[in-house]
Amino acid sequence: MSRQPPADDAPCPCGWGETYGRCCGRLHREEAQASTAEALMRSRYSAFAVGDAEHLLRTWHPGTRPADLSLDDDVRWLHLAVTAVQRGGPFDDEGVVVFEAVARGSDGRQVQRERSTFLREDGRWLYVGAVGRG
Q1: Residue 56 burial (CB < 10 Å; 0-12/13-18/19+)?
Q2: pLDDT at 134
Q3: CA–CA separation, 81 vs 78, rounded Å?
Q4: Which SS3 state, helix, strand or coil, does residue 54 take?
Q5: pTM of the model
Q6: Which helix (H) or strand (E) element contains residue 43?
């Protein structure tokens, strides 16, 4: 995908209220690691929003990661709402994040609801998979 990431002083797409440079941009550039499952999930949402397939693959658990990933240039991610978090804190090794993401694509408005599971291995949070997409 050929989108440019936002400027470091622009609002972060994840909606946490920080600038991109202080929030997900640091994770995308590998300057920091996500401290919680929610932080990783938000960085992955932002990666979809800015077209960073490398970050998505890098943060995907090797047991479930696809061989490659192509992102749809026509989809624009517009809003993220985290609706529940179970575990996934700095002292946990597993976590669940439930969210709703809104996008606009060639077919109009899309809403993705997902219950994502995460594991922390060697101190690093990884996305394992999703239950309930829609």
Answers
A1: buried
A2: 47
A3: 10
A4: helix
A5: 0.93
A6: helix 37-50
Task: Say which residue the tokens 């219950």 belong to.
Answer: 115
**Could you confirm whether domain 24-131 is CATH 3.10.450.50?**
yes
Tally Cβ neighbours within 10 Å of residue 70: 8
- Give the list of residues 6+ apart from residue 121 with CB closer than 8 angstroms, or none: 61
Q: How confident is the model at residue 133 (pLDDT cuts 50, 70, 90)?
A: low
**pLDDT tens per residue across span 51-108:** 999 999 999 999 999 999 999 989 999 999 999 999 999 999 999 999 999 999 999 9
Residues 6+ apart with CB under 8 A from 51: 1, 2, 3, 71, 73
